[in-house]
Amino acid sequence: MGKLQEEKKTQERNKMGISVNHLKFSYGKHPVLKGIEFQLQEGNLVCVLGKNGAGKSTLFRCMLGLLTGYQGEIRVEHENIKDLTQQQMAQKMAYIPQTHRAVYSFPVRDMILMGTTASLKNFENPGPHQREMVERAMEQVKITELADRMVNELSGGEQQLVLIARALAQQTKILVMDEPCSSLDYGNQIRLMQAMKKLAEEGYLVIQSTHNPEHAFLFANQTLALLEGKVAGLGTPQEVLTEELLERMYGIPLKLYEVGKENARVCIPKIV
Length: 272
Known about the structure:
It is built from 10 helices and 12 strands. It has 272 residues and is an alpha/beta fold.
């Protein structure tokens, strides 16, 4: 039994994904990340929760190679990101920003085609293979009917799906999203979270920050909770997001209620 357990642990370690070890980062004399450690594997939708200032955005910027003055180690698909070029990083991990209105607009198909540049050599133009990748990406998030629309004419939810399709066209298996639902209405939030869950089921590692615990309970299979620059919990939402931890994270008394047949939970503040 001991040998089988050790073999299983080795197999888990060998799975592709991202690992963060002893990560520390400070802005001047102000420490933000204080020894962050975790490992996330492909095939998971991971919701990262924590109040403003907990270190979510700083963690993402370190993971994406945008902040380099950190201590510790970040590995993507077993490679230290400090050893990777910008193009190599783009081939391994895609960043999807919060939806925004573009100053210059393009047709949806052309916007997604921009995501294929990570696979091209210098001065090489996209060819039939890249255009096929674009069509496949649009099919994955069900926006083929928007292909010829201008991006700045789309709703916020549709724009977010275009950005996701552009990331899929990069041919990476890791997607990092910073509060993708923050400016979306309720319906578009649900549609977006459903799309993220489906991508995780297809083998992608989707890492997204959110302030809504219910997004984690309803859609994620893993939750990473940050508190004061440290990992307060990593596991299933039901394991990690207890009433006690949520109260510590957000500073308000609340109650969790189970709903439905799949142990989904809703978070209700105790209003005095």
